[in-house]
Amino acid sequence: MRILVTGGAGFVGSHLCDALLAEGHTVVCADNLLTGSRNNIAHLAREPHFEFREQDVCRPFDVGKLDYIFHFASPASPVDYLEHAIETLQVGSLGTMNCLELAKIHGAKFLLASTSECYGDPLEHPQKETYWGHVNPIGPRSVYDEAKRFAEAVTMAYHRYHKVDTHIVRIFNTYGPRLQLNDGRVISNFMKQALAGEELTVYGDGSQTRSFCYVSDEVAGILALAKSEEHEPTNIGNPGEFTILQCAKVVLEVTGSQSRIRNEPLPQDDPKQRRPDIAKARRLLGWEPKIDLRTGLTMSLDYFREAVKASGAGA
Ligand code: NAD
Ligand code: UDP
Fold it and tell me: What is the C-alpha to C-alpha distance for residues 280 and 235, in angstroms, rounded to an integer?
């Protein structure tokens, strides 16, 4: 197949490009490098079935005949989407509609990278796909949450009204090599701080929870969903749940760091708990994650060590 990956120079998108190329497909990666990096795709420079286009997907564009579109373009880290608030709303709305139009024109299948953030600060725990969420529509995080909720709505509309073959994955916190060192997410912050001998910044008292999925598990789930007949949102994440304080302790163990923990204020509307119910993915796709947090962090160590060295942090 000839496949477009938007956001393909980002963290998850670049791993997706690798997996699609490994399956023998031709991949066109469209990315405006807002939060991504050429470094993430540098190893593909001489790959004949890979093409990079520097492109803002909020502007109308066409890359020729396509069989599948994976729409991953969007800032994803809270620090990034708060800095690029309007761009985040644009790529979730205009960017998603442009990509759906392309899918309609070329008769291509379409998969939207959505998010557990659609559940907001959830009152139902763990989160099933049937839960409609608890989102502050005007809070600081709304630029991301509501953009993604709109993206899901317009994807379902193109499916219902234009018969586009669409899929929606709700991705839960994912980590691994190529997570940008300075994107402010908890795993990148803690790994950087631990390896640079800095204090680990735990926001609030660290009792809020997250569930962390290693990137190869996440990509395997996304590919299984892409090949399925399922059109409604499907959670892909790791149900192992950790408080942020526990997560800090795992990072200290894996890195062997002596860093101390420092508490900082909790950001507004920070979800108190998050864990995917993956019964649907297990049943429909026969998928479940294989790599637990300790193992995944150990597998990411070399990448973070190199990234910390290159950044000069802790030197
Ligand atoms: P990332 O920031 O590393 O990657 C996003 C990519 O999109 C970047 O390369 C960026 O330059 C690109 N981009 C942004 N706006 C664009 C535009 N207008 N035109 C073209 N490219 C644009 O983030 P990520 O973690 O790889 O996330 C990828 C996708 O997965 C996002 O849609 C995100 O919402 C979703 N997601 C990720 C997670 C996670 O834990 N990583 C969780 C939930 C959802
Ligand atoms: N967090 C933290 N210290 C950090 C970065 C994040 O305690 O240096 C917390 C944050 O408040 C949230 C959780 O870790 O409760 C996950 O944050 P992240 O930004 O990775 O993603 P989110 O799940 O909030 O989108």
Answer: 8
- From 143, 172, 185, mutation site for ligand 2 pocket: most ligand atoms within 8 A of C-beta: 185
Q: Where are the beta strands (DSSP E) in the chain?
A: 2-6, 26-31, 50-54, 68-71, 109-115, 166-171, 174-175, 200-203, 209-211, 213-214, 234-236, 241-243, 261-264
Indicate which residues carry an active-site annotation: 144
The pLDDT tens digits of the residues spanning 95-121 come to 999 999 999 999 999 999 999 999 999
Cα distances (Å, whole numbers) of residue 278 to 106, 144, 214, 222, 251? 32, 23, 15, 13, 25
Distance CA 84, CA 80 (A): 6
Pick left, alpha or beta for residue 2 (phi over 0 → left; psi -120 to 50 → alpha; otherwise beta). beta
Residue with tokens 């953009």: 147
- Predicted structure pTM score: 0.98
